[in-house]
Each structure stands twice: as structure tokens, then as C-alpha cells.
Amino acid sequence: MTASRSVPSTTRCCGTARCRSASTAERCAARASRRWGASGSSRRPEARLDVIPAIDLEAGRSRVVFWPGVSSGAGAPTDRPDRIAEHFVALGAPVIHLVDFDGARRGSPSNLGTLGAIAARVATPLQLAGGVDDPDAIRLAFAAGATRGVCSLAVADDPERLAACLAVAGDWLAVGLDARADRLAAFPWRRGAAPSLDGLVGELAGRGVRRFVLAHATGDAEIGTLSGLARTVDADLLVAGGAADAAGIRRVRDAGAAGIILGEALLSGAIDYQTAREAAA
């Protein structure tokens, strides 16, 4: 891996009018500090797989009801995203991944109130996917409490829009990609031919993308590609789903990914968070 790039001061704000107001400047500076890290480096420590809980948001609620005590019958189920996030942060989650299903359908962030409620309860980076495919949407998400954004494949195919998004989010903009070759081939590319996954990741990394969220990347073929990318691309590779047990998590770890994003597997109780962390170690 090459040396880390320098990053802006930890007091950088998101640039919105809300941030520029005196009453909210300190909160935005705190978000920026979490975004860039206390050490000033955006790069992860080597040989570490972060286990990142995911919450799917719809109409202000979690699409999956979470019952932390389901195995023992203790506690009570909840679909409140802020309480779910608080539970996993208390267990040591380094990031909470949020998927705005309403935002993905509408093309702009649609659960900003819920995002703000989560940010008010946890001092942990919040990564938002869904509806954050342009600079204004990213600014809205950051102003509400997100510290990272995940844009879609459509942005990856639009160099000008990608550059504008990177200008707002810097290293903390991720591009979400489906690792399956047939899905990449089926996308209506504006270029002459569909790229391969490794070719596309290399191209986007060359444009400044330092973070990728790869869905469906745990099959045998995809794990091989992931391993190759981890060795050759200066970017953090986060694998979204596809692993529901310790063995699957270890496969992702051994391939060299920076993190694994687990949603329903955690919320349904298929695997508990501490077991997942032990497998990732």
C-alpha cells in the first residue's frame, strides 16, 4: 500500500449555511474531527477488519426489528434506529452504516430527522447510503449528522459528478459497487463496453476515490477479485453482507478487506456482534 495522503484540518466544516452559523459550527467541527480521525489520517491500520453494523431506514424506522435479547427472551424488540445504533456502539462498533431506502427511491436523503436523532445519541461515524448521489445531497447528509457518504454506480459513470462529490466529501466518499460480473455488465454504461470490477475500482481510485462498498463480494470468484484489489489498490474495501457466520467473516478478513457491513445477519440474531468481532480479529 502507498503512503497515506494528507488530509484537511480536523476543524474543516461541511460548508453548508447551517454549519457556518455560530450556533452549529462547533457541532460540525466535531463531525469533521470524527470524519478525519484524531490522528489526521484517513487510512485504516493494516490487518484489521472492522465489523460495521447496518440499519436499513424506511419512514424513520428500521426495516428489520431488532431484539437484542432474543436468545434469552430478555429485553424488548425495537425498530428505532437510534436505539439500535446505540446498542452496537456500546459493544464497540467503529462505524454505523445507514441505508436510506426512501432516499434511494427519491434521489435525495429522506430520513434526515432519523439521521439527526442517531447522531445526537452516538459519537461514532455514521455512513449514509441511498440518495447521496450529488454534492448538495451530501451536504444535507453531513449537516444532519452523517460523516461519510456512499454514492451509487451512476455517479461512478459520471466523472464530473464524481469529482464534485469528492470535492465535498474527500476521502470519506465511498462508491457502492455490485461485485458480480453480470450485474456490472447489465448496467447501462455511457462508455462503449462494461468494465470489469478490478478495472473500474482501479479507474475510480485513480480519480481519487479511497473507499468502496462492495456488495455480493463473498462468492469464490468475487473473493479472489477482492483479494487482488486489496493488494493493488490504495483504497479501503468494505464488503456489504454475504456473510452470516464466523467462517464467512474470516474469508473476508483473509482477503484483505478493511471492513464487513452486516445488517440483517446481526439484527436477526443469525450472528451476534461479539462473535463477529472475534472472527474478524
Architecture overview:
The protein has 281 residues and is α/β, with parallel strands linked by helices. The protein folds into two domains: 12-41, no CATH class; 49-280, Aldolase class I (TIM Barrel, Alpha-Beta Barrel). It is 42% helix and 16% strand. The protein is built from 14 helices and nine strands. The chain has an eight-stranded parallel beta barrel, surrounded by eight helices. Helix 11 links the parallel strand 7 and strand 8. Helix 11 packs parallel to helix 12. The longest helix has 13 residues, at 220-232. The radius of gyration is 18 Å and the shape is globular. The two termini are 20 Å apart. Residues 1-45 have low confidence and may be disordered.
Pick out its properties:
281 residues; 2 domains; alpha/beta; 42% helix; 9 strands; TIM Barrel; 8-stranded parallel beta barrel
Strand content: 15-25%
The low-confidence parts are 1-45
The name of the CATH topology of the largest domain is TIM Barrel
Question: Helices and strands, in N-to-C order?
Answer: HHEEHEHHEHEHHEHHEHEHEHH
**Shape, please?**
globular
Radius of gyration: 18 Å
Helix vs. strand class: alpha/beta
How confident overall, as mean pLDDT?
85
Question: Topology of this protein?
Answer:
Elements (H helix, E strand, L loop, with lengths): L16 H4 L4 H12 L13 E9 L2 E2 L18 H10 L5 E5 H6 L5 H10 L4 E4 L5 H10 L3 E4 L1 H4 L2 H11 L3 E6 L2 H6 L10 H10 L4 E5 L4 H13 L3 E5 L5 H10 L3 E4 L1 H4 L5 H8 L1
Parallel strand pairs: 1-3, 1-9, 3-4, 4-5, 5-6, 6-7, 7-8, 8-9
Antiparallel strand pairs: 1-2
Helix pairs in contact: 3-5, 10-11, 11-12, 12-14
